[in-house]
Structures are given as structure tokens and as C-alpha cells.
Amino acid sequence: MTQNAKILAGMMEQAYLEIIPTKTIVERLIHLPRHSYVAITCSPAHGVGPTLDMVDELRALPDERQLKLVPHVAARVVRDKGHLREILARLDEARVQSVFVPGGDAAEPAGDYDCALDLLRDIADTGHRFKYVGVAAHPEGHPLVDAAELLRLLMEKQKYSNYLVTQMCFDPGLLIGWLRSIRKAGITLPAWLGLPGVADIPKLIALSLRIGVGQSVKVLKKQKGLVRKMITARPYQPDDLLAGLQPHLDDALLDIPGFHLFSFNDVERTERWRVETLKNLTNA
User: Fold this and answer.
1) What is the DSSP string of the chain?
2) What distance in Å separates the CA atoms of residue 122 and residue 119, rounded to the nearest whole number?
């Protein structure tokens, strides 16, 4: 195995999966190895409650099924400092060591927090016990915030966090170029790259356009055999994206520790792809 392949294999081995808290998702996580990293999203419609309940439910699993949990606490669903203290107390009781703080997609804030930066400041003021605090980054921009403001906010959020996760992107050149630009601007947070997992292509394109991932969707549409895949209902797999990123993973300046896989709750197919990719790298 080449050094580059070893690096990629290590990243695939420690990649973590993002899930949406639903009534049936826990039983499907049986497909994941013990101590896998699992990020639990926070719904703009239902708030942080289902996220916290999912943390408690997963913590109650037998030791052989324990996972490393990374709950999302979206700023726009937290009402006030009192509510924040309640959330942090529950996460502390559940022995959560890592939390991810996005702004959130709620159309209107539930209370005092309009953006992630405000919530991060108050989390820091509580003297939290988290080992890791992550923030969101947007290689293709944000539908409601211009590029200069996004960079300014990321620079400020860097004071209260120790890693970032990129929004889903299908264009490896765009992603690496963006990462080089923020490094030059002074962003030093380790960057976990957000990769789409295995998903049905029409659903994936529709979701991508909704969250503002427009430019790189053009790359997705140009990928060889995409039309045929859509006709035959074959799912998307991020193999081409991974191949485009692989030559850059050993660049120390970029500081890429690993991948964040957006599963869209298709845990079985995404985990099967991860394991098969890891096997192919190991046997190469």
C-alpha cells in the first residue's frame, strides 16, 4: 500500500457518520463497529429535544454497542442561557466529549441565538467539559450570508472551537481551493471534509440544491454514467470525489484529519461502501 493510500485508509477507518434522530435509526446502527463516531443532527422543526433523547438512548445500549457521540446543538433552536445550561447538563450527564454547533436551518430563532457564534460564546462562558467543539464551514458559500461575512464569522468561531466540518460538496477542486484560501486567511482549525454518503441521485441533487450546494452539483451531473445510474436507479457513491481528494490528503498545510459522512439515514448502504472502500485500499 502506498503512503497516500495508507493516509486515506486511516481516514476512512475513523470517518464518522451523520444521522437524523428518528424512531427507527437506533436499530439500524447495529451495522456500525463499536466506538464508531456518530453525529446526531438537530432538527429545525423539532428542536434539540430529539437529539438529546437519541444521545440518552444510545448511551443505554450495551457496552459492546457503545458509540462515540457528537450531538449537534443548533443555535437557532436554543431559547436562552437557561435552556443552554439544561442542554449542557444533559450532555455532561451522558459523558459526551464532543459537540457540534451550527447556526441551524430554522427560519426564525427560537429565542436569543441568531447564529452559532453567539451560542459558542455562551457555551464557553459556562466552563463546559467538552474535549472537542466543532463548527460548520461552507466551501460553496451560504444562501443567506456572503463570502466575506462567512470568513469573518469563521475567524471569530475559531476562538471557541477546535475543529470544523465542511458542508457537503461534490467538487474536489473547489473544496481544496477553498481550504487553501481559508488557511491563507488565518483559519487553522482541523478540517473534517463533509462527503455525501450513498444515496439515490434524484434525492441527493434535490437536497443539495436546497442547502445551497449548487456549483458542485454541476460536477455531480457531469460524472460519467450519471444519467444511466438515474435511469437504472443505481445510487450515488462518492468514489470519484474521494479519488479527487486523495492526492491532497497528505498536505500538512490543509490539516485534514478525516471525513464526515452525510448518511441521510441510509446507514446500511453508506457503511457498506465505507467498509468496501477500506478493504480495497488495504488489499491494493
Assistant:
1) --HHHHHHHHHHHS-EEEE---TTHHHHGGGSPTT-EEEE--BTTTBSHHHHHHHHHHHTS-GGG--EEEEB--GGG--SHHHHHHHHHHHHHTT--EEEE-----SS-SSS-SSHHHHHHHHHHTT---SEEEEEE-TT-BTTB-HHHHHHHHHHHGGG-SEEEEPP-S-HHHHHHHHHHHHHHT--S-EEEEEE-SB-HHHHHHHHHHTT--HHHHHHHHSTTHHHHHHHTPPB-THHHHHHHGGGTT-TTT---EEEEE-TT-HHHHHHHHHHHHHHHHH-
2) 5
pLDDT digits (tens, 9 = 90+) for 232-264: 557 889 999 999 999 999 999 999 999 999 998
Q: Using alpha carbons only, how large is the chain's radius of gyration in Å? A: 18
Task: Look at the block and give the residue holding cell 458559500.
Answer: 141
The label of the residue with cell 441510509 reads: 266
Tell me the average pLDDT of the chain.
Answer: 89
CB atoms within 10 A of CB 22: 12
Stated pTM of the model: 0.90
> Quick one: CA dihedral 83, 16, 19, 166, positive or negative?
positive
Per-residue pLDDT reduced to its tens digit, 61-109: 888 889 999 999 999 999 999 999 999 999 999 999 999 999 988 889 9
From the list 15, 23, 271, the residue with the least C-alpha distance to 165 is: 15
Q: What is the pLDDT of residue 212?
A: 43
The DSSP line for 195-211 is: EE-SB-HHHHHHHHHHT
